[in-house]
Amino acid sequence: MKLNLRLKIGITILAIFILGSLILPFFNHVDPTKQGIFFKNLRPSLQHLLGTNSQGQDIFWFLIYSIRNSLFLGISVSIFTTLIATLVGLSAGYIGGWYDRLIMILTDSVISIPSFPILIVLGALVRGNTSFTVVGIILVIFGWAWGARTIRSMALSIREREFINTAIFSGSNRLEVIFNEIFPYVYAYIVVGFINSILFVINTEAALAVIGLSKVEIPTLGSIIFWALSYNAFFTGQYLWVVAPVLATVLLFLGLFLTSTGYNQMFALRRGHS
Fold it and tell me: Does the reported pTM lie above 0.90?
């Protein structure tokens, strides 16, 4: 099916961010986190596209590495949360019975526990040294439940349809019914949920970094803003140090949002709903 305009714009934005953050670092041979490598407070030029900050760091390269790390965290966490949500939701919705009740108790328990306050407390306890791994694990633990509940509801509805009984009478086992018959009806939601999860993860890590509760030594979209605010970039006239990462974050979120809603719209049209 032909891609709609919203999806085209979203994919284009994401492609620029992903390919740029993966390819451009090969053309840089300087650690962007090291201080004092370049002259301080240089204006934008061909050598330093966004200038340098008061710590002698190249803002452009720090931003490129920040985007790469934020995307890596977002995609990695979203892969795990989506897999868990899909497996748990499909199995609970189709199998039902005591297994479904047990899964729903676990799911509702996880949903009732807010992840962001836990990350804030953890970050405060370790004084901003929360590693990417720890942040990622916590986000995976608390990030699968909403998706699993929704997928389970969809599976409950689909399992009552006649073609499911036909598949069972034809000799298909549980796994074959779940993945061959039910999965095609929920995969569009799974794709949208995966994209939205990336947005949530990046936003959460950025929020933690901005308030100094993530490992700000690692370049991320949040840590670059944290350092800019810490060194009073606005008051010293280093506007690009703040504006560039904020603009990049907005564009990245816009790309994710347009891709998510555009894909959802395309799938709805494919199913015959306007």
Answer: no
